[in-house]
Amino acid sequence: MTRRLDDIDRRIVALLLEDGRMASAEIARRIGHVSERTVRYRIDRLVSNGVVQISAIVNPRALGYAVTADVFIEVVPGRLRSVAQSLAQLPEVSYVAYSTGERDLSIQVYARDNSELHTFVSEVVGNIPGVARTSTMLVPWKVKDVHQWQVPEGLPPADGKRRSTASTGGPA
Question: In angstroms, rounded to a whole number, what is the distance separating the alpha carbons of residues 53 and 161?
């Protein structure tokens, strides 16, 4: 089921992305025409409907994990699920996803240095039964990460009626 958000929900989400600990009273003040109670109710609804999750985001670099890499993995037929589940259990891996194209899985890895990354990919990932081949790309910096993703403006609000997006160059 697709969740529909109105403009108030979108503004609440944007403010929570700015600071996930922002008080409902502050959110209400910054939106301007809603009560703190309304904000609390809407946050509870957004969370219970699975639209947002309120959680801490660990900064790996602050903990000494200076190297980030994307690793693309080719898997032998019939082992995709078991390889994905094995990868998801590894603490160095922050992300596991099925992919299409030349590789079957995509993972993101954090390591303290390039040597640790190489050892992890070649000796740990490479030795998981079913892994046929890996390809590693260093990620020197991220411009945008999943926790920065905003609800797109062009999505229909709760009433299902599209608003004009002429100012963004999108469809009206």
Answer: 26
Site of tokens 């109670």? 37
The answer for 149, left when phi > 0, alpha when psi is -120 to 50, beta otherwise, is beta
pLDDT digits (tens, 9 = 90+) for 63-93: 999 999 999 999 999 999 999 999 999 999 9
**What pLDDT is recorded for position 69?**
97
End-to-end CA, the chain? 24
Task: Compute the distance between CA of residue 28 and CA of residue 45 in angstroms, rounded to an integer.
Answer: 16
pTM, full prediction = 0.74
Where helices occur in 80-123 by DSSP H, the ranges are 80-88, 114-119
Q: Is the distance from CB of 79 to CB of 48 less than 8 angstroms?
A: no
Q: How confident is the model at residue 2 (pLDDT cuts 50, 70, 90)?
A: low
Q: pLDDT-based confidence at 55, cuts 50/70/90?
A: confident
Output the six-digit token pair for 22.
């922002």
Class for the domain spanning 60-138: alpha beta
What is the largest distance, in Å, between two alpha-carbon atoms of the chain?
58
Q: Which residue has the tokens 């994905």?
A: 84
Pick the CATH number of 1-57 from 1.10.1060.10, 3.40.1440.10, 1.20.950.20, 1.10.10.10: 1.10.10.10
